[in-house]
What we know:
1 helix, alpha+beta, single chain, elongated
Amino acid sequence: MSCVSIYRPSGIAEEPMTIPFPRLRFGRTSSADDPQSLALIRARLMHHNRSCPCCNSVAVEPLELNDASLNVSGMPIPGTATVVAFHCNGCYHEWPVAAR
């Protein structure tokens, strides 16, 4: 174990000095703007619409708006666009997000 001494130019300390540290919060509060909760909502949406309601095919892809977040190079970041509907590649059926 090491000892750390604090240099005080006045020589005698009248009162011990404490250094305030901010308290860390270990619990997370969920917010609609939180990127982690947005990813969770998107994952649940993809899970609930993973098969076609007409033919039960799993060849389903999301239809997204052109509003994805851009990275430093100006390229869209996958998984950040708004999903508005789903399209089945088996029977070509399309359904909106709120249908299920």
